[in-house]
Amino acid sequence: MMGFYRSEYKDPLDSSKKKFMAVTQFEPTDARMAFPCFDEPNIKATFSVTMNAPESYTCLSNMPIIKEEAAEGKKKVVFDKTPIMSTYLLAFVVAELDFIKGETKDGVEFRVYTEKGRSELGQFALDCGMKVLPFFANFFAIAYPLPKMDMIAIPDFAAGAMENWGLVTYRETALLLDPNQSSAQAKARVAEVVAHELAHQWFGNLVTMDWWTHLWLNEGFATWAADLAVDTLFPEWKVWVQFVFTTLSQALHLDALHSSHAIEVEINDATEVNEIFDAISYLKGASVIRMLANYLTVDVFKQGLITYLKEFSYSNAATGDLWQHLETASGKPIKDLMSNWTKQVGYPVLEISDLENGEVQVSQGRFLSNGTEDASKPTWIVPIGVLNAGSSESYYELLDGTSGLLSGVNTNSSEWTKLNAYQSGIFRVKYSDSMASKLITAIGKSELGPEDRLSLLSDNFALARASRLSTAKALEVLKAFNQETEYTCILSICACLTELSRLFAQKTDSEEYRGFKRLAEQLLGPIGKAVGWDAKPGESHIQSLLRSQVIGSLIEFEHDETMTEAVARFKSFVSGEAELIPDLRLPCYFAAVEVLGKEGYDAVMKIYKESDLNEEMVRCMRALGAIPDVTVLEETLQWALAEVKAQDIFIVVNSVAKNRRGKDLAWEFLQKEWENLVERFGKGSHLNTRMMTSCTEFSSEEKAVSTCSFAFHLDGVILRFLSACFLNA
After folding, report:
1. Which distant-in-sequence residues (6+ apart) come within 8 Å of 490 by Cβ?
2. What is the rounded average pLDDT for all residues in the chain?
3. CA distance linking residue 206 with residue 217, whole number of Å
4. pLDDT at 728 over 70
5. How far apart are CA 683 and CA 129, in angstroms?
6. Residue 344 gets which letter from DSSP?
7. What SS3 class is residue 729?
8. Which range is least confidently modeled, 82-96, 254-268, 363-377, 704-718?
9. What string of DSSP letters covers 132-201?
10. DSSP SS3 for 77
11. Phi/psi class of residue 620: alpha, beta or left (left: φ > 0; alpha: ψ in -120 to 50)?
């Protein structure tokens, strides 16, 4: 799925027939597979594309068609010349397509293309896109430079989407929604991915990183800007609260590994580029942007972005160029402040000490998840947001050096103080006992906002994992959430419970595991009863997400009453007696396969084979791995290799690996098939890293060490993932 390749799919109008489309994927360095070129981001050119194709096929490229000539069942299609741009942004597609269209308020023609007969599934993406494009044009104070924007769903697509200028390509699940079958989570993903790709039309396309070392200028900014746009379109979704869990927390987890890398990575050869298309470039990059934007204020940050984009339009830029413009806009020493955040691996943990006079001392050191110290003793200039009880406004203090005193904070007070207010900064905090006690009480009283509540939980579990805090204290924080109702906080609670459950993966008959299940029921049972099983008329998007998460987690943790109800609803659904709302299909499919065994497995497989919606097929693949029968799990892995779309094999492997009975099977399968998978997907493919991650989530040092004999002949990005497994065992 690289270069100019063929994508295969079933004819939506006649499933017995195969159809094909020709499509491109050039980023990072595969334009050279399609035509001779200087395939580097800072060697820009204009492109005049002409295509010859069967007359019945649609031809698409970055620019509008300026001439079309037909002769003897063929046609010659000539496209307008592109602006000057990088090779990796060129795109062309030949296929039998339908489309829906509209026009933005700025007069840009906007179309969403799909396979024949499926264009209505692109309506939500079209609606989002036509609002997001003018939003960015206004925010960046630069009009969208092209006369049209096309978005197209590709049946076989390795990535989530690709920001080709004027012709954005998508995996089907990132663009298409069925109002009757799509979940709230799927809707949120489509909005986020569309916004991400349209942000790239400015960050990446209009202004391109000078070299791959500065990839984060593309991906970090697009990730941050996507949430900015979605929050404007759907403020009730509370996107910035979710950012703390979905983006920042993942960045903190991965960047705490010895095997992490700096945001700016020196790339010496184009073959190394795939290694940095990872969570550090995307998630930590976006988190750095959010930290800086919040510190400067978004309005000041925006002014720096506008002058930066205007100076480097149709050209290339490096990280230092952005810092210079933000310095001018803010009057602050941005380069000095931010240099270590992008050039230095990792992030700090701030350790808080109470002094006798009530003052607070803060010291910093790199946080590593295995509890060791970094011998180089790196430091950062840390903007610390401070929020005091009773105040609606936070303020900042800078820590520049290994330690310092916080003004305005007095531990002799009976009131709490939260550092890293709203979890804006990329660091963890280890509080003194007196400060921690006050904050735990504040969690129970809901005196803290959701970002601050969930960040306290995340920090304490990370500190306990690193042996910098007792597990008992981390559990004390977790138990303070026994009345929690906020969706994103529930996500964090469920993540902590999942982490605890892995410790008992092979001890499900033990008293410790029974104690864990009681804890899970105490935390999730009340909110599960409150949200119920049935959607209420007019309920919010967040409520739909909450119901799916809580019921799914109760099933994951084998809550008997929930599993019984899920299986009953599944049976009613497959028999045609009742509908099953899309938000509950995955948890109910999962419960049916686990409880009913082969009967449930066969029923879910039937749904998979009869569905023409990729979202529904993905739900089925994620559930099939729940079957307890080891023989069927082995057959499922072979089925994935033989019959599942290449882009989706990792979903099945991950599903089997998530099953405690299938963990070892999935790891053995991956080792055995590794050379085949590398040949199919290429070295450094994120499809392979996704499988590697799930297959090596071991809970013992013995298991982690056993991977070493396999690890050291692998390419760099995969080796880093295995190193992560080893260091976290």
Report:
1. 484, 524, 527, 546, 549, 550
2. 92
3. 12
4. no
5. 33
6. S
7. coil
8. 704-718
9. HHHHHHHHTTS--SSSEEEEEEESS-SSSEE--TTEEEEEGGGT---TTT--HHHHHHHHHHHHHHHHTT
10. strand
11. alpha
Cα–Cα distance between 115 and 113 in angstroms, integer?
Answer: 7
Q: State yes or no: is 120 an active-site residue.
A: no
Strand 207-209 to 315-317 pairing: parallel
Dihedral, CA of residue 685, residue 690, residue 695 and residue 701, to nearest 10: 90
Q: 598: buried, middle or exposed (CB in 10 Å: 19+, 13-18, 0-12)?
A: middle
Looking at residue 687, its amino acid is L
How do beta strands 74-79 and 65-71 pair? antiparallel
How do residues 599-644 score in pLDDT, each as one tens digit? 999 999 999 999 999 999 999 999 999 999 999 999 999 999 999 9
Burial 331-365 (b: 16+ CB within 10 A, else e): eeebeebbbbbbebbbbbbbbbebeeeeebebbbb
Which long-range CB contacts under 8 A does 74-77 form with residues at least 24 apart? 76/50, 76/51, 76/52, 77/50, 77/51, 77/52, 77/53
Tokens at residue 1, please?
A: 């799925």
Q: Which of 27, 197, 219, 451 is catalytic?
A: 197
Q: b/e per residue, 1-36, with b = 16+ CB within 10 A?
A: bbebbebebeebeeeeeebebbbbbbbbbbbeebee
Distance between first and last Cα of the chain: 34
pLDDT band for position 532 (cuts 50, 70, 90)? very high
Ramachandran bin of 181, using left for φ above 0, alpha for ψ from -120 to 50, beta for the remaining angles: alpha
Kindly state the helix (H) or strand (E) to which residue 522 belongs, with its residue range: helix 511-531
Alpha carbon 118 to its chain centroid, in Å, reads 27
Cβ-count burial 671-696 (b if 16+ within 10 Å, e if not): eebbeebbeebbebbbbbbbbbbbbb
Lookup: tokens for 234: 């759907």
Q: How many helices (H) and strands (E) does the chain have?
A: 27, 21
Strand order in the sheet with 97-103: 97-103, 109-115, 148-154, 167-171, 161-162
CA distances from 340 to 132, 264, 276, 402 (A): 33, 10, 18, 14
Helix (H) or strand (E) holding 242: helix 239-243
Q: Are 30 and 3 in contact (CB under 8 A)?
A: yes
Q: What is the distance between the alpha carbons of residues 692 and 306, in angstroms, rounded to a whole number?
A: 40
Enumerate the β-bridge partners of residue 61: 92
Give the Cα separation of 145 and 165 in Å (integer): 10
pLDDT tens per residue, range 327-344: 999 999 999 999 999 999
Return the structure tokens found at 496: 């902590």
The count of other CB atoms within 10 Å of the CB of residue 439 is: 23
**What's the CA gap between 3 and 12, in Å, rounded?**
26
* H, E, C per residue of 654-670: HHHHHCCCCHHHHHHHH
Instruction: Tell me the HSE value of 465 on the side-chain side, using a 13 A CA sphere.
Output: 21
SS3 state at 9:
strand
Tell me, letter by letter, the H, E, C secondary structure of 41-72: CCCCECCCCEEEEECCCEEEECCCEEEEEEEC
Residues 6+ apart with CB under 8 A from 611: 617, 620
Q: Is 702 exposed, middle or buried (0-12, 13-18, 19+ CB in 10 A)?
A: exposed
Given this model, what pLDDT does residue 414 score? Answer: 83
Length in residues, the chain: 729
Q: How far apart are CA 696 and CA 196, in angstroms?
A: 30
Cis status of the peptide bond prior to 64, with omega within 30 of 0: no
387 strand-pairing partners: 418
In angstroms, rounded to a whole number, what is the distance separating the alpha carbons of residues 455 and 553? 20
